[in-house]
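Duplicate of #3305? Posting structure anyway:
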């Protein structure tokens, strides 16, 4: 295999040096090769395609540089969402539907009434209906909170666009 005259030297760089944008490291031997090289000229190892960036950029960092006000708003909404989820689950442990009512879901009255029926059935079937109904009420409350949060985000975006 012949080396191209303009190929990189193939030396391992010291820690204070970095590769240029048209270079990368060999996956096997660690020497510097062309970014578009499919086979390392030093060791002959087949290379995977190079990433478009010379280093990985965390998604959160990229998003923060693009639109910081939206990120800050979503962090405050997320804190509110977590608090409401804790309230939902905690009160649904006491009585199904109670947590739904406290987070603003009016269907909690119906869930509370149905809980009496499932509670009565649980005497004959080892509490399995109550456990399943608890999971269902928690999931429905979670879906309600997600819809509520997406409405708040849409409203904030609309307010930001109009101002």
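Output from current build:
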């Amino acid at each position: 295999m012949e080396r191209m005259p303009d190929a990189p030297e193939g030396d391992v760089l010291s820690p204070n040096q970095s590769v240029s944008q048209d270079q990368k490291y060999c996956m096997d031997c660690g020497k510097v090769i062309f970014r578009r090289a499919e086979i390392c000229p030093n060791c002959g190892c087949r290379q995977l395609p190079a990433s478009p960036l010379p280093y990985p950029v965390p998604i959160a960092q990229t998003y923060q540089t693009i639109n910081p006000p939206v990120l800050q708003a979503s962090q405050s909404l997320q804190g509110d969402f977590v608090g409401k989820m804790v309230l939902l689950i905690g009160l649904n442990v006491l009585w199904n539907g109670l947590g739904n009512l406290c987070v603003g879901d009016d269907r909690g009255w119906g869930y509370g009434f149905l809980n009496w029926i499932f509670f009565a059935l649980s005497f004959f079937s080892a509490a399995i209906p109550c456990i399943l109904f608890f999971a269902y009420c928690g999931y429905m409350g979670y879906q309600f909170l997600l819809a509520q949060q997406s409405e708040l985000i849409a409203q904030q975006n609309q307010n930001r666009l109009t101002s």
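Confirmed duplicate; merging threads. The helical segments are 59-66, 68-94, 98-102, 108-122, 128-162. The chain has five helices and two strands.
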